[in-house]
Amino acid sequence: DLDMRFSSITGVVASEEKSRFERMIFRATRGNCYVRFAPIKQPITDPESGLAVEKSVFIIFYKSESIEVKLKKICDAFSAHRYSLPDMDDASSVDQMLTENAQELVDSRTVLLKNQDTRYRLCQMLAKHTERWTWIVLKEKAVYHSLNMFKADVSGMLRGEGWVVAENLDEVREAVEKAHANMDMAMPSLVDHVPQPWPTPPTHFVTNKFTYGYQEFVNTYGIPRYREANPALFTAATFPFLFGVMYGDIGHGLFLLCAGLFLLYKEKENDNAKLGELGEGLHAGRYMITMMGFFAVYAGLVYNDCFSLGLNLFGTRWEFDGQDSGSVEEGTIAYSTAQYGSSESVYPFGLDPIWHVSTNELLFFNSFKMKLSVIFGILQMFMGTCLKGLNAIYFNEKLDFFYEFIPMVIFAASLFLYMVFLIFYKWSIDWNSRMLSATCLDPNGDGWGSSDYAGEWIVCDQSGNGYCTPGGYSCVDGDDTAAKCPLNYGGSGDGCQPPNLITTLINIALQPGNVDEPMYYGQAGIQNILLLCAFGSVPVLLLAKPYIMSKQHENQRHSDEEGQGDDEEEHGFGEIIIHQAIETIEFVLGMVSNTASYLRLWALSLAHSELATVFWEKAMLSTLNMNFFATYIGFGVFAGTTMGVLLMMDVLECFLHALRLHWVEFQNKFFKADGVRFAPYSFKQIIKEAS
């Protein structure tokens, strides 16, 4: 009977390996064994990997000892854990083993619970000190890292060189002396100035909550040189203003302003909170967002634009015939409710809301915003050029001041500031009076003696066709404006016809001395002088500085460098010429292209107002006269498009364009952006970065 008994191997194997395990056994033993599996209900933690794994119990019946050797090798290959069992016929041994296993499980569970409780109490105790220990380790590492940069000096002293903010020098001395005294060392400590020449010092700016965001904008482009004019100071004023010019709308600006005020309200809470990358950026720019919203509302009040609608806050100064009864016809011309030019005829603040319902609305707003864009752009670029001169004065760079800054100012003032002057001068002229002075009227007609003419009305001898100009000229059939205008400024307009400023500016260079529609006496001669100044400044800007620098190098050349001095001098002078040529071309062409670039202020403002108009007319206005449900749906579409396009995408678009105007158009006039940022030794900053 014993010869007929089968031997067995029992154990546990991963369930995912069950099929491969069974197939391997079958092939190795050629089918001379019998295998049974039973899955374990709960996953078992693998002691090697620590992961929960689905496992199955197996039992293999076999007869030969050679098969047993193969089976054990297969079990080891599949990482199957084998267990020895007593003879199944010995019931007492089986019961004893079950009892022992149950008791062992209870004991193991008790030990595990005890270990878990001990670990928890140990971690709880260590957690009280972890942060303090981490800070100590970080401080120690920072101290040793700094000490490694010191150099050995006489008598075992260590000497280190570094930078310190000038106003904090006394504090540094006190801190070093105090630390040295605490070590009870006989040798004194010393903090003193390093003899010059120094390398270029790092740049440090003291910022507050308001200026921090603008300084980071500038630092993203480049760190200012030491003692160089800091663009962030000017950016803090001009950046939100130019954003408002592009985004000007009372309603949309109020949303942005409220978002900024909410961030200011949550300031203390967010200072101590762990925010994400987006949240940190919004928190850092909370004052910037508030100012952007404020200037958007301000520009919206100037444009009199609220969700594309004009607000009649102070009462319009124009009226249409039949507007009270709603019978205004297409093409009707509005009339002023007060005398032209009087204080009553001027809308108190911003533009008159009548423009929003007139057919020439787009023509007027385009002209107004285009001129504003040119004015703001030229003034900001000229301010950047002036900052270049201030930098030259501060650093005592006489060549840069006299042969770069002065020619640049002359070039910019002769053409571009003159453009601003023409815009304001054209705005200041009473064109109604000037055009009326060259208009033929019947002395006995109703138009004679109109208050629109600023001069004295003189009746002519009526020797021509019977009509007279207000200045007393007797009109003749076929007379042009120049013959009838009393100003005698020249050209076809003779000063009595408003000019096209773009044509006037183009003709300054293309047709010197020819002004078809002058605005003041001697305009052609003055423009010729300005053109000569502009053209004369270019060769000075290009050649004067390299020539003087080459002469200075010749005078300073030492006798011991004569062997290779000629080659070096030629090479150095060539580099100076190339650099100055690039500087000249960049400035001259940049003034033209940058002025055109500022037209984005007009373009984005126009796009914003037109999009708002489309959303209002197509989503709201078209559904108001239908029914309640259509109006409800229309408002949902209007609110959704306004939020997604105008309050999110357009804010980002105007933000990026305003940023580009400062980085490219403004800062390149004076900003070198090649400085090194001051990195003070700060435990607080080290701990903050580590956490």
Shape: elongated
As a percent range, the share of helical residues equals: 55-70%
How are helices and strands ordered from N to C?
EHEEEEHEHEEHHHHHHHEEHHHHHHHHHH
The number of helices is 20
Low-confidence residue ranges: none
Count the strands?
Answer: 10
Q: What is the distance, rounded to the nearest whole angstrom, between the alpha carbons of the first and last residues? A: 75 Å
Rounded mean pLDDT is: 88
Strand order of the largest sheet: 2-5-1-6
Largest sheet: 4 strands, antiparallel
Explain the overall architecture:
- The chain has 691 residues and is mainly alpha-helical.
- Helix content is 58%, strand content 5%.
- It is built from 20 helices and ten strands.
- The protein has helices at 18-29, 65-77, 91-147, 169-182, 212-221, 231-247, 250-265, 267-271, 277-284, 286-303, 361-394, 398-428, 431-437, 481-484, 501-510, 523-556, 562-597, 600-624, 628-666, 683-690, and strands at residues 7-14, 34-39, 44-45, 52-53, 55-62, 81-83, 151-152, 158-159, 318-319, 335-336.
- The strands form four sheets. A four-stranded antiparallel β-sheet has the order 2-5-1-6, with helices on one face. Strands 3-4 form a two-stranded antiparallel ribbon. A two-stranded antiparallel ribbon has the order 7-8.
- Strand 7 (151-152) and strand 8 (158-159) form a beta hairpin.
- It is elongated, with a radius of gyration of 43 Å.
- The model has no long low-confidence stretch (mean pLDDT 88).
